[in-house]
Design a protein that fits this description.
single chain; about 525 residues; alpha/beta; Glutamine Phosphoribosylpyrophosphate, subunit 1, domain 1; Rossmann fold; five-stranded antiparallel β-sheet; 21 helices; about 45% helix; about 15% strand; asparagine synthase (glutamine-hydrolyzing); ATP binding; Asn_synthase
Length: about 525
């Protein structure tokens, strides 16, 4: 979706541009028919327009799905932009000289000649200190904004209003364990069933972990001929000790359910040969690996179900269990270390991150009566859902879109996430295990050994050849005075780092991102101002 709106050349007809899907389109249409509204076309745009005529700005609260839209109302003289409650679809915009340029991708907005391709001080801090976990509403570039998750942006000639139409609220959880498990299972089963029943063939990406294994089991109940896809690396195939690997569990789950699984093996040569250009810098190696899997999926299927969102809603990310990261006064997953190898251009990076953190913390809805420890878990859960999860959903959207398929995320459902948000930590860790209550949800359809297994890291290419490639790319930036980051990096500090990066996996990931940033700046002709 992309377009331009000119305040001086207004369309006299109510119309909408949109992207994504409505999972409850039939339900909305029935509600409209009861109120005398007819939907002449079955597409999402027609449903949105009819709902807007009936309920005004409240129409967006009726929708369930992944969507972004731009709607023009000539009677109210207003341009309305909106995104779904969990940010499954993105939307950017910029207003220049009486024209609003908008699009699902950043490049859609930059295509308008009046939009400046400039990176100012705040954007540089966002890019090098927060990135790739960008702050909600931040599009990095000067003058370009992202419509925030669960928000409407209403433009009129006089002003711009932003309205949040959905948010988490804190309330005591009163359901017993058995009732909680039943409700969670019912919501997940509904989501999987609805998302598998598509007009194009659907599959599940099976990692062998609890989330994807559970989704696969639920999908197989109605689709016994389901084919799944998994990812592996040559390094994993060569390992003798397989206890901590995902691959053996993929095959155990597939065999238990009587399904066919297609394993896609991705190594350093495939990663280096792949051509992938995203609208914002990401985690190049990880992104390319999954993009190549989605390309394989696209040969036979149009939709892939993924388990994203489960770790965040049930609190199984590593920072929930490591006090060093959980309790520090910052986003647990943000490590603003890149500025330590930069010149004074980003010397305010830590202050920038702290401002973003404090702003986010003020939005956490508290629950009366919680202990300090419980309150901190609630804060970290909120930060994870509202700031880390959008990074994941944006990445999934971009990679699947580039591969020519659509993603469906059964865990990323507002009703389900709101219910899980209020689960006490004792339920999320029921039985002394991460995701304890979710394990009980899937216990009826998976073997105990799968339900009880510990989480392992996703496969990544650990080959030293890839690290050597990264070092060469960074050296090229240092040697090229025309490289966008040449004068941002401290040459001495970076060269010292390159001597030790082969033994430091964390810094290798950061250098991977640094190379992505430099390429992104150059490809999009962005100036650092």
């Amino acid at each position: 979706m992309r377009g331009l709106f000119n305040w001086k050349q207004q369309n006299p007809v109510l119309h909408v541009s949109c992207a994504g899907y409505l999972q409850n389109a039939d339900e909305v249409q029935r509600a409209l028919q009861l109120r005398g509204q007819r939907v002449l076309e079955p597409d999402m745009g027609a449903v949105m327009l009819a709902a807007y005529r009936e309920w005004g700005l409240g129409f967006v609260e009726r929708f369930v799905g992944a969507f972004a839209f731009v709607l023009w109302d000539p009677d109210q003289h207003q341009l309305v932009m909106g995104r779904d409650p969990l940010g499954l679809k993105t939307l950017y915009y910029a207003e220049c000289a009486g024209v609003v340029a908008y699009g699902s991708r950043l490049q859609d907005v930059l295509a308008h000649h009046a939009v400046p391709r400039e990176l100012h001080t705040a954007g540089l801090s966002e890019l090098l200190a927060m990135g790739p976990y960008f702050s909600p509403g931040q599009a990095v570039l000067h003058g370009v904004q992202e419509v925030r998750v669960a928000h409407l942006v209403v433009h009129t000639p006089e002003r711009v209003r932003r309205h949040r139409y959905w948010q988490l609220t804190s309330e005591p959880h009163t359901d017993r364990l058995e009732t909680t498990v039943e409700k969670l299972r019912d919501m997940l089963t509904r989501n999987v069933t609805e998302q598998m029943n598509a007009a194009v063939p659907a599959t599940v990406i099976l990692s062998g972990g609890l989330d994807s294994s559970g989704l696969t089991a639920l999908a197989a109940q109605k689709h016994p001929d389901l084919q799944t896809f998994s990812i592996n690396t040559p390094e994993s195939l060569d390992q003798q000790d397989v206890d901590g690997l995902d691959a053996p569990w993929v095959w155990k789950v597939a065999k238990h359910l009587g399904l066919t699984n297609r394993e896609v093996v991705v190594g350093t040569p495939e990663v280096l040969q792949a051509q992938l250009r995203l609208d914002l810098p990401g985690q190049a190696e990880f992104d390319i690996m999954h993009y190549l899997v989605y390309k394989q999926v696209g040969e036979t299927h149009g939709i892939a179900l993924l388990g994203e969102g489960s770790d965040e809603m049930f609190g199984s990310q590593s920072w929930f269990y490591n006090a060093k990261f959980r309790d520090r006064a910052s986003f647990p997953w943000v490590h603003p270390l890149l500025h330590k190898i930069c010149t004074g251009e980003v010397e305010q990076a830590e202050e920038y991150v702290q401002e973003r953190y404090q702003d986010a913390l003020r939005q956490v809805p508290p629950l009366a009566g919680e202990s300090p420890e419980q309150a901190r878990i609630r804060e970290v859960t909120y930060l994870t859902l509202q700031h880390y999860l959008p990074f994941l959903t944006r990445r999934v959207e971009r990679l699947t879109e580039a591969a020519g398929i659509e993603a469906r995320l059964p865990f990323c459902d507002p009703q389900l996430i709101h219910y899980a948000w209020n689960l006490p930590w004792e339920l999320k860790t029921y039985g002394g295990q991460k995701k304890g209550v979710l394990r009980e949800v899937f216990r009826s359809c998976l073997p105990d050994e799968v339900v009880n297994r510990q989480k392992s890291n996703a496969p990544v290419v650990f080959s030293s050849a890839y690290t050597t490639y990264l070092c060469a790319q960074v050296e090229a930036i240092l040697d090229d005075p025309h490289a966008p980051l040449h004068y941002v990096l401290d040459q001495a500090k970076v060269r010292e780092l390159l001597r030790t990066v082969h033994q430091d996996l964390f810094w290798r990931f950061r250098l991977d991102y640094l190379v992505e940033v430099n390429s992104w700046l150059r490809t999009n002709a962005i100036r650092i101002v």
